[in-house]
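Data's thin. Show one?
=====
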Amino acid sequence: MKSPFNVAFTASLMVSPDAEQSSVDQLLSHDYLRPLKELQHRRLLEGKPVLDLSMVNPDLAPPRAVIDRLLESVGKPSAHRYSVSRGVRRLREAFADKYLSKFGVSLDPESEVCVCLGSKDATFHALRVLTHPGESVVVSAPAYPAHLSAVALVGGVVREWRPLSDPLLAAKSLARMLDESQARVALLNFPSNPAGAVVSAEWWTEVGRVCAQRGVAIINDFVYGEMCFDRKPAASALAAREQGARCVEVYSLSKAYNVPGWRVGALVGDDRIVKAISRLKSHADYGLFLPLQYAASVALTSKQDLVEPTTVAYERRLRVLVSGLSRLGWEVSEPKAGACVWARFPAALAAAAKGDSSFVSVRVAEHLLDRAGVVVAPGCVFGESFDEHVRFAAVSSEERMREVVSSLAALSSANSQ
């Protein structure tokens, strides 16, 4: 008897392209950021300074030992052959080792770990396996933009869910959403991007119970799992499996180890889902460049805490931004993890921002770029109902963060005159 995961996998391969065309066309036609990108390009051509805080594209260096392992591997002729689509055994074991040592979760590297080409690849394939075109997918909001894109690319329909921090209230709210939408998948993101929110193991237990009762699969983006500012690893969503929930989690080295260009990630958890994704990937790619896999395994299994210096650096930068923005009248969600500040801009700034976009957050982002030389991500890209927010990515030094606050203070003063 075929598992529901394999049925979904097979059906997704056979679905007509026309069935997904409308959602893909809609995705490609909505480029909220084109005017902002064009303005940024003009400023750069004119030689004007631009500080791009719109994307979490780490400026910090990868750990030296990891780079050394990469360079060593590149010099070996055998390292340039085809790899394995689901990842070499050494790297799968390294992911399992990380989960056991950091998060207290035991994983079978043979059946519960599939190496992917970063978190986007993992999320897309998980949705491809678990959903059919036209089905609803519950997505935690504000949503990481790549999650909204992934749902659209598989032909799904986003159902926005605003999670509550209290476990029982969150479970009750999610139950209502799942019952109303008839969704079969909940795509969550904790620790979250953009807000930096963290949830407890109890939270996952309650959410897992609700999903298990309804046969709903959980996908959790866990990219910031090690980057919590209380120096404790975040609770893994895989705790939900204790309630009988089908659950997988996306882990990536991009932010924690400052190697976003490497595209090293993994999907871990439910063995049936992992098996289906491994099969799918065997049709799609030959896996990561081998030296990257060997270097990543060194990062994941290091006896030193290679992530702490990165976490400390982001915490200090974010503290500067949170404090400065609050003084200027912004409503700021103080992050508990990650590399971003999620903030509601003052009404006066919105009134001063002029432009052609129908989205206030895009006009504000253009205003900040034009008048202060700072690029931020408009709130509407995290969900159109978040048009009164912007996201700052702390991808520059503390000193530059202070300069940003000073520039915003000068802009605020000019707007009030």
Q: What stands out?
A: Residues 64-301 form a domain with the Aspartate Aminotransferase; domain 2 fold (CATH 3.40.640.10).
